[in-house]
Each structure stands twice: as C-alpha cells, then as structure tokens.
Design goal:
The chain is of the alpha/beta class. The protein is 37% helix and 18% strand.
C-alpha cells in the first residue's frame, strides 16, 4: 500500500514533497529549490531550520518531552508571562492549534457571562468570510457553507453578519449575546483587513452592551502585520484573543489570551488539555519570542512588507488581466486575481514560488518574517513570469 492510499482524501495536495528547508527556501526530494512564500500557511514565522529554534527544540528534546498539566511546566509560566507583558492580557491558556485556542476563547466568553449571573448569554456574533477553525464549533462560528455541509446540525450559538457592517452587528445583539468575535485581518477570507476605526467602534459596542470582544489573531499575530499583533495598529484592546501559527514557528502551539476579568470563570477543572503547553512547544514558543521581540525586528518586517507591496503593485499594473489589486500589510499580503486563484497559484508554483490560495480569488503571500530583500526580489520576478504566461495564454483564447 502506498502512503497516499492510506490517508484520508481531505487534501488536494500538490505533487511535491520536501526533504529540508533553509530560511525562505524549501528543497524538494528531486533537489529543486522552491522559494517559500506560503510559510506553511503563515506558520513558519522564522523560516526553515532557524538555528535558535533548532537549538531550543533539540536541547529540550534531550531533557523531557511531556509531563501533562498535572504538574508545573516552567516554560509555560515564562511564555505566558512574556505574552501577557507584550499584550493586553493577564492570563494565558496554551493549546496545540488555532482551532483549540478559539474553542477556549468561546468557552471563556460563555463562562464569563455564566459566572456573572447571565447563563442565557451564550451567543457570539461573527462576520461573513471568517475562518475560525475546523472543529464543529469553529466551523459554525465561521459560518461558511462549504465547511458546514454534511456534518449535521450547525452548533448553536453563532449569529453571522455581513463583513464590516457595524449596524448589522448592533442589530444582531440580543439578551442572549455574550461576545463579538472577529479577525482583525481575514486570512482565509482573502486578506481583508478591518479598519482600525471599525475595531474601535466594535469595542465601544461591546462596552455599551456588556459583551466581550474576542479577536482571532491565529494568522495575523506574532509579527505577521509588522506589529506583534494586528490589533495594535488600532487604539483598542480585546478581552480575549486566540493565537497560534507563528508563535510556534512550525511547531504546533496555540494560546488563548484574556484579561483577568474575562478569565474569571475559568477555574480549576472547567477546561483542560493533555498536550497543550508541553515542554517542547514552550521551548520553541519562547525561542520565537526571543527573535521577534528583538529591537528592530518588527520595524524590519514593516519595511520589507512595504517594499514587497510596492513591487507587487507594479506587477498588478503590468498585468491587469491577471491581477486586480494588492492587499494586506506587513508580510501578510494578497494578490486579488481576475482569474481562478488556484490557476494563478499553480503558475507561481511552476516558477518554483509557493503561495496559498484564499477566498475572494486571492493568492496569499506569507513569507517568513526573516525573508531577505533578495528573496522578495526573486519572488516578485517569479510572480511576473507566472503572470506573463497566464496573460499570454488568456490572450490566445
């Protein structure tokens, strides 16, 4: 039996396998080198084989891998304290993935209302185009039919409103509403940022109605937009935030961050995890922060993101039959396509550049935050070559 025959057929995989990586590059089994602007879907925040991450993981691997949360885990305390010091948060719960972090965030919000004498307040308002994970609760929160179909009744408790519609959000608030959940930048939805003013109005709405504001920064967090977290481009602070992806730099790590007030209901025994916050994950998470929090690191992400945007804008101008616009900020960028984005991503892959399709016919570009100026230059040139071939084939029809 071949390896592929034994696997669930839930992924439309590209016919590529990689044996090693170096920085922004992946090397296939054939020896061919690919420029990785997919980043494991915004996961490999420090690229491949980063020496500080490799050292942290291997040193911890020689000590202890797993003990469970029945005992103290010093790396957890350290990473939690560092995340709290760098954000709005007072408390942190560690998970293995973004979906688990969102589940914890949802439970934290509901539990907050419960312990405050309002158990009827369990509903959460979300926005069209959102993606919050693949569990039964998070596909209900995302509300996309393609993810809900065939999995039985939709989990109760989520009310979806149009993207960026403040009036609709306010109208959706009832006596049963507990919180509002939003991505500051929709990733899977097509690199669609929420303007800072909108987040500020949502914050005011939550304060007015006694709701908690939950941010999903699984994709936009840990420096991806040029700030440690995307909400920091605005003047607001959330009550709860879910993170994952970049905080592990490729190792499975997620976390739910909350204020003391929001987490007041999360007492001993009401929530748990076997693997979450394990020593290996904590060693890597702390190593990621060592790098991302260095003086000047996030400024460099902003500068590289600006340079990439300007270069990509010239490609959009050059190939108007292929691309419509550049979206995003920092190194969370997207190209809105005028043709099927899967075909565009495939053409880029033919030029040995990896990208990620998203909603709204967008191709995401999510390179490591350590990407070099030369890497960006090469990526833009490969996109130009792919676009030229697509434009020529379109013109020949």
């Amino acid at each position: 039996m071949s390896g592929s025959a034994a696997l669930f057929e839930t992924f439309a995989r590209a016919p590529l396998a990689f044996e090693r990586g170096e920085g922004s590059w992946l090397i296939a089994e054939s020896g061919e080198r690919y420029l990785d602007f997919a980043g494991g879907i915004a996961v490999n925040s420090l690229g491949h084989s980063h020496p500080h991450l490799v050292k942290a993981l291997t040193e911890q691997a020689s000590k202890v891998w797993h003990v469970s949360n029945l005992y103290e885990i010093p790396g957890q305390a350290r990473l939690g304290e560092r995340l709290a010091a760098a954000t709005f948060a007072d408390k942190v719960f560690f998970t293995n993935s973004g979906a688990e972090a969102l589940e914890c965030a949802i439970k934290t919000a509901r539990r907050y209302q419960y312990v405050n004498g309002a158990p009827e307040r369990f509903r959460i308002i979300t926005f069209e185009g959102a993606f919050h994970g693949r569990t039964l609760a998070t596909i209900a929160a995302g509300g996309q039919k393609k993810y809900l179909e065939g999995f039985g009744p939709k989990v109760e408790g989520f009310d979806q409103v149009p993207f960026g519609d403040l009036e609709a959000a306010e109208k959706a608030i009832t006596d049963e509403t507990a919180a509002i959940l939003i991505e500051p930048v929709q990733g899977e939805g097509g690199i669609r940022p929420m303007p800072p003013q909108f987040l500020e109005k949502l914050r005011a709405l939550c304060d007015k109605h006694g709701l908690l504001l939950i941010l999903d920064e699984v994709q936009s967090g840990v420096g991806r937009t040029g700030k440690l977290f995307a909400y920091q481009w605005s003047s607001i602070e959330p009550d709860i935030m879910a993170i994952a992806k970049g905080i592990g730099g490729g190792f499975p790590v997620g976390a739910c961050l909350a204020t003391n007030k929001a987490a007041m209901g999360m007492t001993a025994g009401v929530h748990g995890t076997t693997f979450g916050g394990n020593p290996l994950a904590m060693a890597v998470g702390n190593a990621v922060l060592d790098v991302v929090l260095e003086d000047g690191f996030l400024d460099a992400v902003q500068q590289k993101g600006n340079a990439a945007r300007q270069a990509l804008a010239s490609v959009v101008d050059e190939f108007p039959t292929v691309f419509e616009e550049v979206r995003g900020t920092g190194l969370m960028l997207g190209l809105k396509c005028k043709m099927n984005n899967g075909a565009v991503a495939g053409a880029m892959r033919d030029e040995h550049l990896l990208s990620v399709p998203a909603g709204d016919d967008v191709v995401r570009l999510l390179p490591p935050l350590t990407v070099t100026e030369d890497d960006i230059r090469q990526a833009v040139e490969r996109i130009r070559k792919a676009a030229a071939k697509l434009a020529a084939s379109e013109g020949a029809k």
